[in-house]
Write a structure and sequence with these properties.
Elements: E1 2-5, H1 11-21, E2 26-31, E3 36-37, H2 43-46, E4 54-56, E5 62-64, H3 66-76, H4 89-110, H5 119-139, H6 153-163, H7 176-186, H8 189-199
Parallel strand pairs: 1-2
Antiparallel strand pairs: 1-4, 2-3, 4-5
Helix pairs in contact: 1-3, 1-6, 1-8, 4-5, 4-6, 6-7
The protein binds glutathione.
């Protein structure tokens, strides 16, 4: 398998998931500006969507979209317990979180990377992102991770998106449960290894 990634982008979530799952994989960095891969290939010829993450599977086919890749990785090694078993209500709860992180947290924070926005235009987006984070903070009360005490691929995705807040000087310290979650996830060996590997 090969993960196409950009440093600290949402692909970090799937990079973490691959390491948490203990799977063998290669990494190839993508320059999202030029759409060139590290080996000089045209990324849009590999993934016409033009964005990361994209996971090249063993048969050479390509899987895209965070929610799909996350579950594919989790199902490759059920012993790592990165997702509840298919068909259970807990699996739908995981999908509920993947949906929330993808369409609410990722999109709310991702919009702030738009350099054409003025501070005045950003203000309502920051406010909206704050509401999405508040919901997560409430949901994390009394729990270590989104699904309870078991780390899942949804946590890897949430951690990845919430890391972006420091680019926008958004202070997470007021969100006590979220702050504790960020510290807890950031200490995981697989997370540290993924962050280190993306620096290179
Ligand atoms: N719908 C996609 C969105 C992925 C996405 O937003 N990727 C960003 C990085 S976090 C990207 O590659 N943006 C570059 C671009 O759209 O040109 C998913 O959920 O996987």
């Amino acid at each position: 398998m090969k993960l196409y990634f950009a440093p600290s982008a949402c692909s970090l979530a799937q990079h973490i998931a691959l390491r948490e799952a203990g799977l063998k994989f290669d990494l190839e960095k993508v320059d999202l500006g030029s759409k060139k891969t590290a080996s000089g290939k045209d990324f849009t010829a590999i993934n016409p969507k033009g964005y990361v993450p994209a996971l090249e599977l063993e048969d050479g086919s390509l899987l895209t979209e965070n929610a799909a890749i996350a579950q594919y990785i989790a199902d490759k090694n059920p012993d790592a317990r990165l997702a509840p078993a298919n068909g259970t209500i807990e699996r739908y709860r995981l999908q509920e979180w993947l949906g929330y992180v993808g369409t609410e947290v990722h999109k709310a924070l991702g919009a702030l990377f738009d350099r054409s926005l003025t501070d005045a235009q950003k203000a309502p987006l920051v406010e909206r992102a704050g509401k999405r984070i508040q919901f997560v903070d409430d949901a994390l009360a009394g729990k270590s991770f989104l699904m309870g005490e078991q780390f899942t691929v949804a946590d890897a995705y949430l951690f990845t998106c919430l890391r972006w807040t420091h680019y926008f000087s958004m202070d997470l310290s007021g969100y006590k449960n979220v702050s504790a979650f960020m510290g807890r996830v950031g200490e995981r060996p697989a997370v540290k290894a993924a962050l280190e590997a993306e620096k290179g």
